[in-house]
Each structure stands twice: as structure tokens, then as C-alpha cells.
Design goal:
homodimer, 429 residues, Aspartate Aminotransferase, domain 2, 2 domains, 8-stranded mixed beta sheet, 13 strands, globular
Chain lengths: 429, 429
Amino acid sequence: MSTLSSLSNQELCTLKDRLLNKYHDFQAQGLNLNMSRGKPSAEQLDLSIPILTCIDSRETCLAEDGTDCRNYGSLDGLPEMKRLFAEIMEVQPANIVIGGNSSLTMMYDTIARAMQFGILGNTPWGKLEKVKFLCPVPGYDRHFSITEAFGIEMIPVQMLDDGPDMAVVRKYVENDPTVKGIWCVPKYSNPEGKTYSDTVVDAFASLKPAAADFRIFWDNAYCLHHLNEKHDELKNILEACTAQGHADMVFIFASTSKITFPGAGVAAMAASESNIADIKKRIFFQTIGPDKLNQLRHVRFFKNRAGMETHLVKHAAIIGPKFALVDEILTAELAGLGIAKWTKPNGGYFISFDAMEGCATRIVELCKEAGLCTTPAGSTFPYHHDPCDCNIRIAPTMPPLDELRSAIPLFTLCVKLASVEKLLAHAGA
Amino acid sequence: MSTLSSLSNQELCTLKDRLLNKYHDFQAQGLNLNMSRGKPSAEQLDLSIPILTCIDSRETCLAEDGTDCRNYGSLDGLPEMKRLFAEIMEVQPANIVIGGNSSLTMMYDTIARAMQFGILGNTPWGKLEKVKFLCPVPGYDRHFSITEAFGIEMIPVQMLDDGPDMAVVRKYVENDPTVKGIWCVPKYSNPEGKTYSDTVVDAFASLKPAAADFRIFWDNAYCLHHLNEKHDELKNILEACTAQGHADMVFIFASTSKITFPGAGVAAMAASESNIADIKKRIFFQTIGPDKLNQLRHVRFFKNRAGMETHLVKHAAIIGPKFALVDEILTAELAGLGIAKWTKPNGGYFISFDAMEGCATRIVELCKEAGLCTTPAGSTFPYHHDPCDCNIRIAPTMPPLDELRSAIPLFTLCVKLASVEKLLAHAGA
């Protein structure tokens, strides 16, 4: 197939007419499709229904140490819940603080505490003239929203194939004491589905930050979320940092949001013991403790990491084919045209799609006007500003396969249409 | 019975010996009793066991608007949960934001937001030289801990019979723009069990604060928590403030912590619509939304306020007799001695006990050494400093009646012993 840019103006015009006809056919269908957020499908949620009733009596509400989980107490989580998250996050239970229903809230609260109280005795960030965070791009919009809300300046750092561009990261972190953090989704990254290589993890661990309170925000949201038998492996960041004498440099986050129920799962963070002590000293004022009954539900349902992995194989059986279908249609419709590339991850919740420069906003707009809601263009960049206007996050997990069979061809049609418009405008200029 | 202060030194010494003998008998029993926190008893918690299993299938996870509560969404709570809390808090659903498992966390977060972002466009408190809160005393230690954590200066204001001394409150609030808030537990107050009179509520509503962002933190934790048929009535503060043109002046908090399960209940706050809009704009960054499945459990279990009231009558049947027993023993052992007074509330979770000046710390110490853990002396005052060292909070709900039958006589013995010691020391001086 010839690339679109090799076509003559005349050929482009003819193609545009044909694409527009197809587009109007789509519009006439009155579609209402949504691929905007990384939500599990109803079928995935059904897998966890038994968790709802596994705690059902006075006796089943007792923790292993005899704690009545129906009453107050347990500031940082039940021992058995810490043990389960320790297995998942590959740390010791003493490195864990259990949170409420959201790791995002734990990240927000971590930054809120750093702003107000400072980290491990350092000056509160709120008292400094300037605080900066590094933001590997494309990245997760809700991370960027948090730092933006606190007035923290965000510096984009390009994602390479095996993680952020560590030369750039090192330059900022080691020379600028106002750089206090970096957002990372190190495994099956949001949106690209990339996993940081051992070299990248080691490069993180060996950073010598200019700021004593620089922290890596390691959002390991998809640590167990494989899509097929090819499992990416991620080197243990806490061990790597500890080996370099920088145990305090990382905060790790995870949750069961996409394992059981988003909004009714359990979140946790992991860090060095001195960080954990610092955090517990502060959260004492904010809470009597997170929901212990929901912790018990999770522990009883999964028992251990192996139980959770078995459960996630069932998830993969549902969403794996969705990712495969999207890739199949994208390939059939767009391969060889020279107007797009996209990722083919082994896990996570997203496919990252790069259109021709300057086309993403137009593609999203065309999709919307034909009844397909996608993640807004720019969402994967700080301040919603994608300097190339090319990245679009595709979230294939929520719609049923049938809907994807309508949605992705519409999407590819919009990609082609926007590309042709772009090439014609360029030729006309 | 003659007052202890009318006894001669000789009589006091004889009494002290007798009391010490009894005290040593108690010590010999090796008791391990706890009256330190306002926790429901296991029997109360049993009442809510059915709530654990009322959501058990894909269908029962659907909210009335069709929302699948197993998935992400609903930043400020389900419509039916807002309606239930609107009934309880006597406001409109539009005045409600549903939180997680703790109203204390909502209070902390409200102050954290005020510090960081300011309220309704006012200067963030964190940017001001000085921020002060008024603290009616005796009051709730966890309130005081929050303001202390944020470095907010706390000014004690004496509780009178029908609420805080409003002349003092008015003087501070109307003249000092650094006074930004006041902590109130307006119904069945912690620890005194007093309910603010209509006059006090009206005095609050008619305040003309020097600070535009002064807020009344109205922690209506015990709004439905009657102990018998005598129900105190509390005038509606939001209506009163609205009538005075000060709708924005109050933040109201409540939860089901002591109705269903502490730590696994649902919390809410209520405020004017402009406050609510301001709050929602900020919490968007902190959370995707609170646990909707737990909201559904509560709505399905209680249906409406009447359902909750019926449930709380069962609670009262369990804890009412405990309060009665405590009062009975206190009266039998201490009435007429001139060394103590205590409250006899119609609701709430506490009895407030005032010993002779300078005796509270010693009483708590004596109790502890004989195996009875009470709330630490000073806890009911900002900075844990009770200038009279006389107030002790008694929390009778958690221990079974049998334990109270051991604990309260021991407590009264310690009261008598500390008082005799005090009188002898005074006489000797």
C-alpha cells in the first residue's frame, strides 16, 4: 500500500470524498460509543461478585489478630492486608501503608503532605518559591492534574522504548534542587503499555538528586495486569534504590481498583521504613483508619498473590481479545499508509496511538461528531498540551467486542480523513 | 453525707487508709478494663450485620439511575445516598457531598484545602501569618489534633449549659480576622452531651465575622443518637445562617460511623451551594469518588431517615442502660461529697466528669495502675492542657454492663482517693 503522502493532490481529493461518504454513513447510524476511560467491563466486574458476600457475620469480621473489623482502629491497615500487598508490591509488610479505595487519593495526599508539612523534616514544598515535577510523556492525565492543582511546574520528559529519557531525567534531578518529583507508571505504562527496562530502573536508583526530598512517584497500577502469556518483568525499584543507599527516594503505589471493583477496592503505598514512619505520623491526624471490612473481603477472596494472579488471568481472557481486535483493525486499515503508529502492549489498559503531527485534535473531534467519545487530545501531556498534537489514548477494555467492531473502523476512518485534510492543507499552503 | 472538705485531717487520714485498702484489693484482681474511646459495643455492631450482604449481585450493584456502582465514577456520591443524608442533616441533596468512611477525614481535608487553596477565593490560610480557631471546652480531642497539626492557634472558649459562651465567641469572631473557624459538636456534645439551645444557634447565625472565610465546623456526629425517649432538639444551623444572609458560614459534618460500623460507614458534609461547588472543584483532584457499593449498602439497609431512627432505638436499648448504670454508681458513691460533678446526657457517647481542681491526672493514673484505662486527663482541651486539671471523659458504650460494674466503682474509688490526697496536701501546706 502506498503512503498517503505519496499521493497527488488529485488522488487525495478523490480519497477525501470517498472517506467523507463513509463518514456520513457512520454519522447516519447515530452511534453512542465510549473509549475514553480505562474502565473494566461489566464482565470483568462480574468475576469479583463473590467478594461482596464473603464477610457476612460477627465471626468473619474478625482479623487474624482478633481485631473486630467492624469497629474503629488500625491506622495503616490490617497485618494480613499488608502481607498481601507486600507480596504484590514485592516489599516487606513493614514497608506498606494501606489506604482507602484509591491509590490516586494516596498520591494526592502524599503531595498535599509534602506541600504542607514537608518530607522527612525537609522544608514544606508550599514554603518554597518554586517546585517542579518531571512528567514522562505521554503519561497519565490524573497525575498531571494533581501536580497542576498544587501549582507545581511540570516538565515533560520524552518516553523512549524502555522508559523515560534518563539522560534528561538525570540532568534535571541532579542539577535543579527545585525538581522534587517524577511521575512514573513503570509497568505497562499509561498510555503506551511500556515497561521500564532494568537499565532504566538502575538509572533511577543511582540518581543523586540535588534535592534531599526528591521522590520518584512509582505508580505500579498495572503490576499484575498482563494481557497474555508474555509477561513484562519490572526490576524492583525499592531494592535497587536501597542497594544504592537511596532507600528513601521512592514512593510506590498500587491498588486493586482494576482487580476487583474501581471505587470499592483497596489501595496501598510502599516506601522505606523511615518514609513509612513519617507518613504514619501525619496520617494519624487525617483518619482513624481505612475500611477494614473491605480489606478483609479482599484478603479472604484472594488469600495471596497467587490467588490474585489466577483471578487476573480471567480478566486477561476478557480484555486480551479486545486489544487484539483493536490492533487487527488498526493494522488492516492503517498499516503502510505512513500516517500512524501505535503500541501493542503485553499488559495494562491502553493503546497509545500517534497520528500525523497536528491531527490528534481533529481526529477526536471527527470521532465525537460521529458518536465516538475518545480521551481528549492532549490529555496525555502536562497542561493538556501535546506540542505535536498527535497522541491519542485508546481505552479498549470497557466496550464489548461488538462495539469495538464499530468504534475502531470509525476511528481509523477519522484518522485517514484528518490526515488527508492535513496533507491537502499542506499542499495548498 | 458530709463533704470531704468538712472532714478533719485525722478523719481524712483514716478515710485514706480505708480507701487504699480497697484500692489494693482492686489491684489484686488484675483487671484489664477500657473506657477510653467512644466505640460501639459488639452487641451494637451485631445490629448491622445484614448490611454486609444486602449487595450481592450485578443487579443489586446498580444505583437508581442505572450507574454500575462496581465501576469508577460519582465524585460526590450517589443521588440516593445524598437524599438519605439530606434527610438526616435536614438540608437539600444539593447541599451534600458524600465522603469516604470518616467525617473526621472530611474535616481534616476541609482544613487542608483551606490551608492550601483557600475558601471561595479567599487567601489560602497557609499564606497568612496567623490562623486561629475557637475551641469550646471541654471538647473533642481529635478536632483539636487536626488544628494543632496545621499549626492553627487554638483558643479555648468555655462551654456553658446550652452551648459555648457566645459573648466570647462573638468578641473573637467579630473583631479578629485571624479567627477562621470554631469546632462545634452541637448536639449531645463530646464529652458533655449538651445540646446547643436555639438562642446559641441564632447567636452563631447572626455572627458578623471579621474574616470573610470564617467557618463554623458543625460536627453533628450524634444527631440521631438518643439514649432514651427524651430527645434534645437542635435548631437547623444552615437555615438559621441562610436567614441571616450567612449561608456560606457553616460546614456541617455527619456519618454513619456509630450507626453501622466505625471505619466502614459513610460520611458526608453539608454546606451552601456555593461552598459545595467550591469543594467539588477541589476534590476532583483528590479522588475519582468514594466507595459507591458501601453507599448502596447503607441506602438499601435503611431506606430513609425513619429506618435509621428505628435502628438507633435498638442501639439506645443497649447503651442506655450503661449510661444509667454509670450514673447510678457515680451517684451512690460520690453524691454529696463535694468532690465531683458529672453530666447526665440524653444522647451521644460520653459522660463528662469534673473532679476537684488538680485531681484529674492523678485519678487517671490511679485508674491505670489498677487496670482501668480511661481517656487521658487533658484530652478534652486544646494542646491536652486542662488548666483546672479536673475534666475526665467517661466512655461507657464499649464495655459490657458487667465490666462497668467493676470499672465505675474502681473509678469512684480513685476519685475519692485523689481527692483525699489533695485535701491532705492542702491541709499540710
